[in-house]
């Protein structure tokens, strides 16, 4: 396991346009077979958007899953949440669509979960790790990137989502969001092997 921090994409970066296969949604598994129906960022309304780069196997993602479930319960009516998995299924087949569906079902998630098979979207976001979290305002400009909170597997810090929650609460109340943001740390995104 390689500990990797977020690249900390510059604040103010516009939300990249993307269209990916949706393998999970509000009503469970989506579409036929592994690839599901297309989900496009261009269909988003003028509301804040939280993009989560996750995967099924990473211990850092597993650690924060309850925090993400609480976040969805508290903010999904005001913020569009969407998760993306970009890990190579050549090296990590457990992060393919079926593994993502099992993860989402186990956690009771209702937000869209997308599969970035080509890894092009992860590269557009400069995503580096799982989890890697990006919050965009209603104009779809980046206002927060970094950690959910300081909790990591085994460090005994509370999994309370305080960093991301503070940013979301400030955004929704029209208050300034601190630019003092700490990078997320987790497993590196599992890029396709060279030559694939």
CATH architecture: 3-Layer(aba) Sandwich
The N- to C-terminal Cα distance equals 22 Å
List the domain count as a whole number. 1
Q: Count of DSSP E strands?
A: 11
How would you describe this protein?
With 196 residues, the protein is an alpha+beta fold. The chain has one domain: Glutaredoxin, CATH 3.40.30.10. It has four helices and eleven strands. Strands 2, 3, 4, 5, 6, 7, 9 and 10 form an eight-stranded mixed sheet that branches. Strands 1-11-8 form a three-stranded antiparallel sheet. Strand 2 and strand 3 form a beta hairpin. It starts with a strand and ends in an 8-residue tail after the last strand. The mean pLDDT is 94.
Short overview:
With 196 residues, the protein is an alpha+beta fold.
What keywords describe this structure?
single chain, 196 residues, alpha+beta, Glutaredoxin, 8-stranded mixed β-sheet, 11 strands, 23% helix, globular
